[in-house]
Amino acid sequence: MAHGLACGALLCVNNGSLWNAMAWHGTGYDGERSRLREWWGITTPEAWQSALRQLLDCASHSDVWEFALRLRRTIARDFGGHVDTGYWRQAAASLIRANSGGSTVLSADGVTKTEPRPTSETEARIEGVQRLIGRITRYEARMRADGVLDENRYVSSVDAWDLGRASKMARWGLGARFGTLQEAESAVVQARRAASLSYCPWQDFSAGYILGRCLHFDEEEFGEWYTDMLDAHRILMSDPGNPWLNIPFR
């Protein structure tokens, strides 16, 4: 439970809230309802449960981000760790082209054929992914310069962004009376379990969270969407009383 609560610590530090209190309701009942309505469009228990499930399933961010990062993980595994950015871009283009030619799938419902994608669409997808790869590498370079990432380390996944928010979403929903304490506790433990499968140590989890947040909000401005998380990261990695220095990631 403590590990799952600590997954939301970046947001807790940034918002000035308690990281280790399950039943503390943050800004109060009205405030939590207002937060969920304004930022998430959540006004009912059903909407809260749906949003929480999406976060726990790491389905609340772009599949394209994970495609690019997963491809780099595969290349790193096959070639001993270091991944040249130019090769990463070329591999992405080759894979997208290979997957755009149409296919035949045999399922329980019979044979399904997909038509080839238009060349213009394929090339647009390639251009978008290659542009994304550039954004990722520039954010990682900045994070290395700022001490978030160690030298020669890279972000393996941005699932942390969903899982960190899931840890807080559970508590926001409890404060807004959209769910029970048991439901919220179960969600926090699920967030912990998923995080421990994808990351180790806390520093890698933090980098994944920050990259996901910046890809969604920051547009390479390196503004508050980045600097606020950088400040929170530094507190969590330095203050001796903080959870990340006292709770083993696995």
Number of helices in the DSSP assignment = 11
- Run of helices and strands: HHHHHHEEHHHHH
The overall pLDDT, averaged over residues, is 93
Number of strands: 2
Q: Summarize the biggest pleated sheet.
A: 2 strands, antiparallel
Question: What would you note in describing this structure?
Answer:
The chain has 250 residues and is mainly α. It folds into 2 domains: 2-61 and 158-245, no CATH class; 83-145. Helices cover 64% and strands 4% of the residues. The protein has helices at 2-6, 9-15, 28-40, 45-56, 63-79, 85-98, 119-145, 159-175, 181-198, 202-217, 224-236, and strands spanning 103-107, 110-114. Strand 1 and strand 2 form a beta hairpin. Helix 2 packs across helix 11 (224-236) and helix 10 (202-217) runs antiparallel to helix 11 (224-236). The two termini are 13 Å apart. 36% of the residues are buried.
Give short descriptive properties of this protein.
250 residues, 11 helices, 2 domains, single chain, mainly alpha, two-stranded antiparallel sheet, 4% strand
